[in-house]
Amino acid sequence: MFFAESGLMAEHAxxxxxxxxxxxxxxxxxxxxxxxxxxxxxxxGAYVAVExxxxxxxxxxxxxxxALRCEVAVLVQPWQSLELPASSVDAIMYDTWPPEGHADAxxxxxxxxxxxxxxxxxxxxxxxxxxxxxxxxxxxxxxQHFPGWVAHPHRLPPDALPAAWAKPTADFLVPIAVKGNS
Length: 182
Ligand SMILES: C[S@@+](CC[C@H](N)C(=O)[O-])C[C@H]1O[C@@H](n2cnc3c(N)ncnc32)[C@H](O)[C@@H]1O
Description:
Elements: H1 6-17, E1 24-28, H2 34-38, E2 46-50, H3 54-67, E3 71-75, E4 89-94, H4 103-118, E5 119-127, E6 129-130, H5 136-145, E7 148-155, E8 171-178
Parallel strand pairs: 1-2, 1-4, 2-3, 4-5
Antiparallel strand pairs: 5-8, 6-8, 7-8
S-adenosylmethionine is lined by residues 1, 9, 28-35, 50-53, 56, 78-80, 95-97.
């Protein structure tokens, strides 16, 4: 989690909802709230975050509530126990950073249990991805559940990287998958 990723998170927000009025947004993994803050210029209609760590929520949620002028709900639980009505959100951002070795299996379960059923037809799904190529397992999962998806490259400029930058690359993808009508 880095505030330095605000330009990247702004791209996720733009591709997800810039052309959608009053979008209902679900974010999975509140973290520092960097993505949530980038939604503000697009005036979402509602924002729901799912975050299991109460300490993170205590620190970050007040800042998000003052940044967004819409209904804000923060559910203190893991996404694995999330229950929302089917077809109830316009956009989903998934960014949980699971432990090494679990990432792709978790991703597939997330798409099956949450992203595909809870997005409305035409709704958009995005997720954090560090690097320039999606793993084949993720591409396969997207192919199975979404009729169309793209991955936009994004590079953080060197002067945006803090001294404590610990990731192996400044290259990212901003994937956007769109749910079909059936
Ligand atoms: C990399 S941070 C998210 C950064 C955030 N997108 C931002 O813009 O600041 C990952 C977050 O996912 C949360 N998380 C981990 N496991 C989760 C789970 N099973 N369900 C929901 N959130 C989870 C972590 O507690 C952490 O706050």
